[in-house]
Structures are given as C-alpha cells and as structure tokens.
Specification:
Elements: H1 2-20, E1 57-60, E2 63-66, E3 75-83, E4 104-106, E5 114-120, E6 126-133, E7 141-146, H2 147-152, E8 160-168
Parallel strand pairs: 3-7, 4-6
Antiparallel strand pairs: 1-2, 3-8, 4-7, 5-6, 5-8
Amino acid sequence: MLKWRLGAVLALAALLGGCSMTDEGDGGPVAAAPDPDSIADAIPRADPKSRYGNPREYVVLGKRYRTLDSHEGYVARGMASWYGTKFHGRRTSSGEPYDMYAMTAAHKSLPLPCYVLVTNLDNGRRAVVRVNDRGPFHEGRIIDLSFLAAAKLDMLGRGTARVEVRALDPGQPIEP
C-alpha cells in the first residue's frame, strides 16, 4: 500500500512538474520568442463594427466604461501589458477567438475592431495591431497586447512598457 501511495505521489509530481514547464503563468510559451524584426504588422482594413463588443457602456469590477463612437483622432500614452496562454482560444469581446500569435490587442474604449499603431517609448519599437477585445482591467494600463505584439515591441520580459497608442485608418501611411 505504501509503494502504491509513493508511486501515485511521484506520478502526480511529475505531471504537475511537466505542466509548469509548458508556460509561464499567463505568459507565452517557454520556447524562444520570435525575432521582433521578423514579425509582420496587422494591415488596417475597413472591417465592419462588431455586433458584440461595442455596447455604449459596460461595467467590469464595479467600474463603468464608455465605448467611443469612433477611433478617429485617438492618441494616448500610458502603460501597456500583454496576455498569453491563459486566454489563448477563449472568445474575445468581439466574438472572435483570442489568438496569442496574431497581432491583436484589447482596449477599454476604442470601437471593435479598429487598428492602432503602438510605439514602445522606451526602445522606439512599433507595431500595428487590430483591437478586437476589451481590457486591460488593471489600474493604470491603457492597452493589453497579444503575445506576438508584445514580442514585436520587445516587452515580453518586463511584461509592461510605456507606450503611445495612435488609431489608424485603412490605407493611412505610417510615418517613420
């Protein structure tokens, strides 16, 4: 009986140990992140507004948020974070499945979907992402990026970065 219990404990420890090696909490896979220079931006296009993700107002954790009628002219600076494996495959606010390997992001008030240029103010790296989800709902954060977008901005290690978020129109040239 003692051998059986010991065997069960060892098997459980091996199973749990294997799980801890597959991801880092809500982060990305343990495998090396892609080269930031090899990651292609999202291409802004005229997508129809989401039927699901654009309520006039909504409440999360007791705080009320208002969805903007338009993305035009939107520019903001603040902290960005990113989300990964914990949400991979789950439905976003727009109704699409979250893909941590796509150039996407979550925003509290921009209409879904829209496209934004995110600039990491600490290193100058930039990424164009499609906003298709709501969040982040952590105080002081203005945008939550996918794993791939965070890799392009070279912010995976720290988890957050000071950024500028600028809304884009389809076909709008991006200034160097």
